[in-house]
Design a protein that fits this description.
Deoxyribonuclease I, Chain A; alpha+beta; 256 residues; 11 strands; 6-stranded mixed β-sheet; globular
Length: 256
């Protein structure tokens, strides 16, 4: 199974690039964030993508997530749902081949840091309940938190910077303690240049002066079968890069 997650930073501006990414990677599941468009403003060719079931969950000029599932991986359209902590079109989940997949867009926290912490707490509580019920999870998206200083270029590290604060990192670590694995770091554990977002000025992306805030997080039993988790750092014009993960041990048999 191949998974793509990408914060598109405006779906209308990235229509052609998304189609190119889907053609190039042929993902079984695609998770998108920061659509910044309600359903009726999502370009029609994307709403009606051949070969995919999809849900577009957005609002005008703000937030928004999507989850796309290949039709040949499920017998019928998955039942898309929104967990209770989703109050601003920031989460959508569906079961695909016995795995609960979520596309997530955690608030940045710049305008309301407390709301960001509440979202992370809600996500953690939901994940804990899902794991306690025996469900396998795949959480993909822009979590807007760096797990450690390794995930921030040295020139971008700042005491008290949102995305690097101890409270956020503690909540992310708690989430991972639920039998979940940060697949990007599991595959590439010591890489100090593994970033997914770059400040959009002074050519920092070209210099790879960035942050790692986009994740593929998987249940430990699923993560054990991961054979790839790559950042497509040169793809697209969003300030985020797509992340692509592949799992050998997850082979849905048209189960829905």
């Amino acid at each position: 199974m191949r998974i793509v997650t990408w914060n598109v930073n405006g779906i209308r501006a990235r229509e052609a690039q998304l189609q190119e990414l889907l053609q190039r990677e042929e993902p079984d599941v695609a998770c998108l964030q920061e659509l910044r468009a309600p359903l009726d403003k999502v370009p029609a060719p994307l709403r009606e993508l051949p070969g995919y079931h999809g849900l577009w969950h957005g609002r005008a000029a703000y937030a928004g997530v999507s989850l796309l599932v290949r039709r040949d991986r499920v017998a019928a359209a998955p039942r898309f749902a929104h967990p209770p902590f989703d109050l601003e079109t920031r989460a959508v989940v569906a079961e695909v081949g016995g795995v609960t997949v979520a596309s997530l867009y955690v608030p940045n926290g710049g305008k309301d840091f407390a709301a960001k912490l509440r979202f992370l707490e809600g996500l953690d509580a939901w994940a804990a309940a899902e794991r306690a019920a025996g469900r396998r999870l795949l959480l993909c998206g822009d979590l807007n938190v760096t797990a450690s200083d390794l995930d921030v270029h040295a020139k971008e590290r700042r005491d008290g910077a949102i995305g690097q604060r101890g409270e956020e990192r503690t909540l992310l670590a708690r989430l991972l303690s639920r039998g979940l694995v940060d697949v990007g770091r599991a595959v590439d554990p010591g890489n100090p240049e593994l970033f997914t977002w770059w400040p959009p000025w002074r050519g920092l992306r070209q210099k790879n002066v960035g942050w790692r805030i986009d994740y593929v997080v998987a249940s430990d039993e699923l993560a054990a079968s991961a054979r790839r988790c790559a950042v497509l750092a040169q793809f697209g014009t969003s300030d985020h890069a797509p992340v692509v993960a592949e799992f050998d041990g997850w082979r849905p048999a048209l189960t829905g």
